[in-house]
Design a protein that fits this description.
Hypothetical Protein Ychn, Chain: A; 4 helices; globular; alpha/beta
């Protein structure tokens, strides 16, 4: 069994990329592969509370993220500096995250067999 890490670094309404990535994440998890998520840079906005995607005619992905628990996706991480640079704290997010510091990211990534992201 391979361990997968998906790195989400794009803003939530950056075209179809987020929706397609979520589809891939759920597909991998559906085949009982261990999946972890890492939110970096503007990707932290993907799990920010109180988004209103209807204003820009985009699909709201909040429900998909919240359904990840059904797929046994519980390892959700965010880079501390990404949150801070955007004025966010873990309490501003609708998913519980484990925080890691930027200096730890490369060592963290090396723990996985498959790393997907941009």
């Amino acid at each position: 069994m391979k361990k997968f890490l998906f790195i989400l670094s794009q803003s939530p309404h950056d075209g179809f990329w987020v929706q397609e990535t979520l589809d891939i994440i759920l597909t991998v998890a559906a085949f009982d592969q261990p999946v972890s998520l890492l939110f970096l840079d503007q990707g932290v906005f993907q799990i920010k509370k109180k988004q209103n995607s209807e204003l820009i005619n985009e699909k709201n992905t909040t429900a998909i993220f919240k359904a990840m628990e059904i797929y046994d996706i519980h390892d959700v991480f965010s880079e501390v500096e990404s949150l801070q640079s955007h004025g966010l704290k873990p309490g501003d997010l609708f998913l519980p995250v484990k925080e890691i510091f930027r200096k730890e990211v490369s060592l963290f990534i090396n723990k996985f067999d498959m790393v997907c992201g941009n």
